[in-house]
Design brief:
The protein contains 15 helices and 13 strands. By secondary structure, it is of the alpha/beta class. It has an eight-stranded mixed beta sheet with strand order 8-9-7-10-6-11-12-13, with helices on both faces. A five-stranded parallel beta sheet has the order 2-1-3-4-5, sandwiched between helices. Strand 12 (316-324), helix 13 and strand 13 (345-348) form a beta-alpha-beta unit. The protein is elongated and about 75 Å long.
């Protein structure tokens, strides 16, 4: 349960927040904003996890209030209710505001914010009471999904893997559609984002001269929220929107996300264009997706050799064989012999995959399970960490890379 404090929030938004179950909500008008300190001092033990500062006060007053709260209670999530604009985002970020939202924010996004604030509080309490040693901590993952060829189901693997990882780390997982020209993650997930990757790159370019290590608020503004409990940075609508994106922008963006999320999944474009190479510089893991087509398998081998020569092959490697079919005339052992790495996960060919993609309903969100869903969860299990030993926990039948 999260403690929520609403300061000068309009009645419509106040009602929507209050209607979300499982949270304690206290609302005050701008004249009674100081009641936060009074509530804490009088022994009610109401320390908010999240504070919404509404648009019934001026921006200057809202930011002044946010700054005073941040100075006294730095762990509180501060949310400013206003129309997100670049200059306002910068001002808000400087005083400690975590998010800037408009009154038109969806109920689903509100719910995710509240859940994440409560999750962060639980994590902080756990760390304070039993802080693990460095080698026992659960490090984050930047996972690049790659393939030299298109049409091998790479985006399907990316979206469904993200859903599986979100089950391990709810609200702490993000998918980045890094196919700058023809990314389709939003279609596969049935999302209609307000912002896209192009907006995020434009924002990071504006902040290039700033000395802040991370521009967390600005980047997070451009993320869409999926009902399954994860974030998505969707691709642009126009293939030409990201023509001028540089490798430096990609590296900075991924670094920012890696500082905020436990799992960052990168759905890269086919081949090895500059954005993919830049992503691999930040990657902890690579998932190589191949079909049973011999031409594709040989291309995977060439990609492995090239990345190794460039010193861009992550230490953690996971080979996924998609569209597996006994009638192909090629065996798993044949494929392993060609690429020189073990096949870690085999995903069988299934008509369900095409149907799910066309309906914008990922397989892992369907109630009925099957061999494809089982294979994706096997892949996700490779990124789990034993909280005691601090090492990756591999399930039976899953080989280490």
């Amino acid at each position: 349960m999260s403690n929520v404090f609403l300061v000068a929030v309009g009645p419509e938004l106040e009602g929507r927040i209050s209607a979300i179950s499982g949270h304690r909500v206290v609302a005050v008008d701008k004249e009674r904003a100081a009641d936060l300190q009074n509530l804490i001092r009088t022994g009610e033990s109401f320390l908010p996890d999240i504070i919404f500062v509404g648009d019934n006060v001026t921006i200057d007053h809202a930011l002044t209030y946010a700054q005073s709260v941040q100075a006294a209670y730095p762990s509180i999530h501060l949310i400013l209710v206003a129309e997100p604009q670049a200059d306002l985002l910068l001002r808000a970020m400087r005083v400690g505001v975590r998010d800037v939202i408009s009154n038109s924010i969806s109920d689903n996004e509100l719910q995710v914010m509240l859940l994440r604030a409560g999750s962060d509080r639980t994590s902080r309490s756990s760390l304070d009471s039993n802080r693990p040693s460095p080698d026992a901590s659960d490090e984050g993952h930047v996972i690049v999904i790659a393939s030299p060829k298109g049409g091998v189901g790479k985006s399907t693997v990316s979206t469904n893997l993200t859903i599986a990882l979100a089950g391990i780390a709810p609200m702490n997982t993000v998918l980045v559609d890094l196919d700058l020209q023809f990314g389709d993650a939003s279609t596969l997930l049935d999302l209609r984002p307000t912002h896209t990757l192009a907006d995020a790159f434009a924002a990071t370019a504006e902040l290039r001269m700033m000395r802040r290590a991370t521009d967390a608020l600005l980047v997070k503004t451009f993320l869409a929220v999926h009902p399954a409990g994860f974030y998505v940075l969707c691709g642009a609508d126009s293939p030409a929107a990201n023509d001028n994106v540089t490798g430096d922008q990609v590296r900075k963006l991924i670094s920012q996300l890696a500082g905020q999320f436990r799992f960052v999944v990168i759905d890269s474009a086919a081949g090895i264009p500059e954005p993919t190479l830049a992503a691999l510089e930040e990657a902890t893991d690579i998932v190589l997706v191949t079909s049973m087509d011999v031409g594709c398998v040989r291309s995977v081998r060439k990609e492995i050799d090239l990345l190794t020569q460039l010193s861009l092959m992550p230490e953690n490697r996971h080979v996924v064989l998609n569209f597996a079919d006994r009638k192909s005339g090629v065996t798993v052992r044949d494929i392993e012999g060609i690429i020189g790495l073990p096949v870690n996960v085999v995903i069988p060919r299934s008509d369900e995959v095409l149907l799910a993609g066309n309906m914008g309903e990922p397989l892992l969100l369907r109630k009925k399970g099957g061999p494809v869903q089982k294979s994706i969860r096997t892949l996700a299990a490779r990124f789990e960490v034993d909280p005691v030993k601090g090492k990756r926990r591999l399930r039976k039948g899953v080989d280490a890379p």
